[in-house]
Amino acid sequence: xxxxxxxxxxxxxxxxxxxxxxxxxxxxxxxxxxxxxxxxxxxxxxxxxxxxxxxxxxxxxxxxxxxxxxxxxxxxxxxxxxxxxxxxxxxxxxxxxxxxxxxxxxxxxxxxxxxxxxxxxxxxxxxxxxxxxxxxxxxxxxxxxxxxxxxxxxxxxxxxxxxxxxxxxxxxxxxxxxxxxxxxxxxxxxxxxxxxxxxxxxxxxxxxxxxxxxxxxxxxxxxxxxxxxxxxxxxxxxxxxxxxxxxxxxxxxxxxxxxxxxxxxxxxxxxxxxxxxxxxxxxxxx
Length: 286
Known about the structure:
The protein has 13 helices and four strands. The chain has helices spanning about 10-25, 40-55, 60-65, 70-85, 100, 125-130, 135-145, 160-165, 170-175, 195-205, 215-230, 245-250, 255-285; strands at about 90, 95, 105-110, 115-120.
C-alpha cells in the first residue's frame, strides 16, 4: 500500500484502507458514549464531537462548548486541545496530532482578543465521526448544516433529501463504514447499472489514493452517495433500498441544480463506456 503523507487526503479507497483503520486504532473504534475507552481516545472523540455539532471553532471556542459554565477550567482545556491538534514531543519522540493525521484542518483565523486559528473537520474527519461517534440523527442534521459548503451536493441538499427519502438520507453512514466500496457486491442491481457507475467512479479517482483536493473528494463522495441509494441494505425487508420511484423523483423532479449535476456525471460515465466498447470492437477486428 502506498505511504500516505502526513496531513494529506486520499480518495475513498484511501479512507477505507488507510485513514479509517488508522483513526480507529489511534482514537477508538467505538464511541465514548457507549463504552469506557482510554482517556486520550475519549478526549479526542469529544473534541471531534464538538466540531461535528458546532462547526468550525477556535480551541477556545471548543473548550467553552465542552465546559459550558465552568469558566475557570476553559484555559487549561484549551491548552490540551492545542496538544491534541499539533501532537507532542515526549523524550525526543513525536506523537502525531489530529491535524497531521488529517481528521481536522485549519479554516482561517478568527480575531477575538488576538488572531486564533479556526479548526474544522476534514471530509475524512466527518466520515470518522459518522463511523464511530454514534451520532443521533439530530446530531447528523446539525453536522450537515455546519458542513454544507464542504459537501454541497449532499449536506447542501440535506433538507430536500429528507423531504423525499426520509430516514434513508442517513445512509451516508454506510460510506463511513467502508461498505459498498467493493463494486462486485453491487453487480446484481437491475434497475440501473449501479456496478458500472461505481466502477467508473473508482477508475476516475484511481490516481488519487495518496492525494486528492477536498472538492474532488466531495464530488466522489456525492456521486457515490446518490448511486448507492439503490443498493439493497442488509435487511429482511423486501423494500430494502430506496424505491426507484423515490430515487428518480429525488434526482429529476424537485431540484434542477441537482438534476443537472448528476446527469452531467452520468454523461461522463456513458462517454467512458462508449470509448471502452469502441476499443473492444477494434480488438475483435484484429
